[in-house]
Write a structure and sequence with these properties.
Mean pLDDT: 92
Order of helices and strands: HEHEHEHEHEEEHHEHHEHEHH
Structural class: alpha/beta
Radius of gyration: 19 Å
Distance between the termini: 30 Å
Strand order of the largest sheet: 9-8-5-4-3-2-1-10
């Protein structure tokens, strides 16, 4: 294995389980290739509630990007697994957990920034000797559901169109948050936008385009225009990749529709690892 392991030795999955995970990964990647509108979308394997042995089996099959929803679970797994894994935090970011999260040397991205307070706490908590800025994605609540985290999108109408009123867009929470990251958080790099979207939109994807995905695409366009007006044009290289903000949208049930809509990053858990135990069952063990 190319990477040195941390001090805590990893546990290996059974040969049968390793083969099962390798096959599932292959199937998901094949489906991604067929559906994607992008050249090389990123697959984040969401290993929430799954043992480190499952992550290691996927690593042995070539997977490097993994996602976790809970800070402590991510900290625990990171101490057991190869240090060239790219960890993505995809759970709700609480400011009081920023220090623990920032202590993970191979934390690659936090996809759930939704407040200036959270961005500032994370920027402050990152070690000064970190070799590269931490990638962050701003979470957008494209479905408008109260139960979902995230800031409001920059769109109007249905089907969604980018908000074109510059004064209105520039005063929104999303634009203010993005400008704060760029101007006040030197240890963070604004990589893109993330959304979860409504289950109903996912289930109806076969009949009609997913409006939540369209809303994130339109929001990206409006935000890029707002950043240019604020003195951060695409050619400055201060945000995104290749002159555009990346989009993280799509999960096990709808990643193909997300890729067709233009997603750059998909987050797949049960499609790779199988059904998860309930939180109560995990705590019982």
């Amino acid at each position: 294995m190319s990477s040195a392991f941390p001090a805590v030795p990893p546990v290996r999955a059974t040969a049968e389980r390793a083969a099962e995970l390798k096959q599932a990964l292959t199937e998901v990647r094949t489906r991604m290739d067929a559906a994607s509108a992008q050249a090389a979308p990123v697959l984040v394997a969401v290993s929430k509630y799954k043992p480190a042995s499952d992550v290691l089996a996927c690593y042995d099959a070539g997977q490097r990007d993994f996602g976790e929803n809970y800070v402590q679970e991510l900290v625990d797994k990171a101490t057991q697994l190869p240090q060239d894994i790219r960890w993505h935090f995809i759970g709700t970011l609480q400011s009081n957990k920023a220090k623990a999260l920032a202590s993970i040397p191979n934390l690659y991205a936090v996809q759930t920034i939704s407040s200036i307070k959270g961005a500032s706490a994370l920027n402050k908590a990152l070690p000064a000797d970190r070799s590269t800025p931490l990638n962050v994605l701003l979470q957008v609540n494209t479905s408008g559901e109260d139960a979902k985290s995230g800031v409001a999108p920059l769109t109007t109408g249905s089907p969604p169109a980018p908000l074109t009123d510059a004064a209105q867009a520039d005063g929104t929470e999303l634009v203010q948050l993005a400008r704060h990251v760029l101007a006040e958080c030197p240890r963070l790099r604004l990589q893109g936008l993330m959304t979860i979207g409504a289950l109903a939109e996912s289930l109806a994807a076969a009949e009609k385009p997913n409006e939540d995905f369209a809303r994130l695409v339109a929001t990206r366009d409006a935000l890029e225009a707002a950043l240019a007006r604020a003195g951060f044009p695409a050619e400055s290289g201060t945000w995104g990749e290749g002159g555009t903000l990346l989009l993280s949208m799509g999960m096990s049930s709808d990643f193909e529709a997300a890729l067709a809509a233009g997603s750059d990053i998909v987050r797949v858990g049960t499609g790779i690892f199988g059904a998860r135990p309930k939180k109560e069952e995990v705590k019982a063990h």
